[in-house]
């Protein structure tokens, strides 16, 4: 523990305008902070193990995944119809429904709702869409105080850092790191890194905001077209407090969160928390169907690039995501890099395929932060073909001339070499028959990336090719 | 039965002994094995980098070299996965389809096609941990995977179980990627090496003397890490064990 107490928490990727994010640079710094990296890897691997244990308790697990995937695919194929059905039913329940084509429009709608009601403060539960739209920053610029009520999200807000994970936003921080943040911002006791004390400190300092807030905001895990309900799943109950304490409840939700009927919800509820945290269900699963007496409820349906993605045969499946984070927990690259290394709202495998849809240039390096091992695809509760989409993104980036120059040059010359057996043999075998060959991608890399932390294989006396020529070509089959 | 033998480029250059074990092992069975002399690579470095156009000529050459065989066999799950699932840069002629459909990794070929029951010439009295290449595991389905709820199976373990003396040991993370990942190993060196080091430590803690895999590429990476770390572990390709070249 002492290493963790002394080691400074590594920060995320350095963002330089629209320049491609250097995920690897940030990942290397994360790895260099070895106590943090180890803690991060172990925490998320534990979640993966708990998920596995839950999976083994459900005999029909794979059938559930099939079902969830089919329901999502069907809904996406008929999304326009279900959105309209949702709107009709929500309106009938007394809910105001708004449509936002992008982040700007969404932020403007929310600002207008708040300003028209003279709301100065907003308590909100966790919303990845809010992060995606940079809603908090926008509202603060408009003079509205925004308080995150989720513990992890609040830690990150106080530390002026983005969430590093869709489910456990501060998973990259040790309790000492949290204590330091709370000492600085919440006047917490110096050096007290007891988790109960820290949680209690956050709770006690957040409650007054909840009690006095003019408005409350939640995201939405699911939208049920049949009933017009918004379903929110949390473990801390903070969404229910945020939604129910102030008289104004605003929901901000992506259009892809739709499911047709209540009966479908059961399938996803069974999968969501088991996949995310390895618990059978979240502590709170709340269906908001309308405003409470005397209150107001608004739902802002946000597109922000989703319908463009829907039109893409290649990348449409990413819209099935229910944000459980299982792909991050299992991803060996994510566990070693930290979520902030991606410099993007969505990190890990799902981030690799979503981020370039927002900005292919800025996030062009992300699809390469993967070994294409396929673990993500097989933990995904809605069966998104994540590693195949990562693979497909590389081709799309190459087609869009977004491949780095060094990759392009190496691959062009390799492609030529491998297409010409004679030239290839010349490259492998020098004239004096002494093998001086290493795989070309190693030789071409000036920094000798292979050898920095790994020993280089000792070249043998001859290649298989020469051995075969000597033993088989001249005298027929070799003697046994 | 006419079998064309493909030896992956890195194996040809760096681990010819694995190629020799593979050839000699195949020759023990009632088949004709030929090594087409003009072979180079399966195209994976280009394809996995998104450069499909750059891979087209390599794929064409591969098909030209191998389309006349009943089966194409290679001691690599990863290259097999490339041929079977990713030969998409070229026109899908009958020959291309034939090659894609009849390309097998050595483990699959012994296990599913030849259905070998015994390796009486081999014995290996060591503690062994199996390493699964991710393409072999999740692409070719060499074994059940920990992510899914499915009955346990393992083709490499089935084959190795038929060799006298082997004692298997289990890893804490039996099918976590080792971080090789082809060009990932150099383009993303820091993360790749860290994953390799973690894998080596898991193997070391398991008490394994040898790590056996159907893919030499992962092993070269792990061995490189182990040597640099000063961890005493030996690495071998499954062909070397099944042919009785190591004991």
Structure description:
The complex is a heterodimer of chains A (480) and B (247). By secondary structure, chain A is an alpha/beta fold. Chain A has helices at 2-6, 23-32, 34-57, 61-77, 79-92, 103-116, 128-133, 135-141, 151-158, 175-186, 195-212, 238-244, 262-276, 306-310, 326-330, 332-337, 348-358, 375-379, 386-399, 405-419, 421-428, 440-443, 464-473, and strands at 96-100, 121-124, 145-148, 215-218, 222-224, 229-234, 248-254, 258-259, 284-288, 296-302. In chain A, the strands form two sheets. Chain A has a six-stranded parallel beta sheet, sandwiched between helices. Chain A has a four-stranded mixed beta sheet with strand order 8-5-6-9. In chain A, a hairpin with a 4-residue loop joins strand 5 (222-224) and strand 6 (229-234). The model of chain A is unreliable at 431-438 and 476-480 (pLDDT under 50). Chain B has helices at residues 9-14, 16-27, 44-47, 52-66, 77-86, 94-101, 106-113, 134-139, 155-160, 184-187, 189-205, 216-229, 238-242; strands at residues 2-5, 32-34, 71-74, 103-105, 127-131, 167-168, 210-213, 234-237. With 247 residues, chain B is of the alpha/beta class. Chain B is globular and about 50 Å long. In chain B, the strands form two sheets. Chain B has a four-stranded parallel beta sheet with strand order 2-1-3-4, with helices on both faces. Chain B contains 13 helices and eight strands. In chain B, helix 12 (216-229) links the parallel strand 7 and strand 8 (234-237). The longest helix of chain B has 17 residues, at 189-205. The two termini of chain B are 30 Å apart.
